[in-house]
Write a structure and sequence with these properties.
Elements lengths: L1 H25 L11 H17 L10 H18 L6 H20 L1
Helix pairs in contact: 1-2, 3-4
Length: 109
């Protein structure tokens, strides 16, 4: 029962946010002078989190982590090689790029 309500609230708030952004893009200030459209995005995140917590958890095999780790290694190598302008933060950014695909797979599962 609550799952349908949360799904409807999530999709409605998400589509409302997209519509408000399009209106704001077409006519700057049309929406933002009245209220912040990002409040609708906050509602979409809340409803989406609640909706995702009611869905049954599907377990996946561990081999999904292998492509994510390969992609992370490639991203980390690119950031390390091309990121000399970041100076000391290059190591932190490379580690973040290495772990980001793995975290994404773990959150999706």
């Amino acid at each position: 029962m609550y799952q349908r309500l949360l799904r409807t609230a999530f999709y409605t708030s998400l589509m409302t946010y997209v519509l408000l952004l399009v209106l704001e893009y077409k006519s700057p200030g049309f929406v933002s002078f009245v209220f912040s459209p990002h409040l609708v995005l906050l509602l979409a995140v809340i409803f989406g989190t609640l909706y995702a917590s009611t869905k049954p958890v599907v377990t996946r095999r561990q081999w999904y982590y292998v492509p994510a780790l390969v992609i992370g290694l490639v991203l980390a190598a690119i950031v390390w090689r091309e990121g000399t302008m970041f100076g000391e933060f290059r190591l932190l950014l490379s580690l973040g790029c290495l772990l980001l695909p793995v975290w994404t797979v773990s959150f999706v599962k």
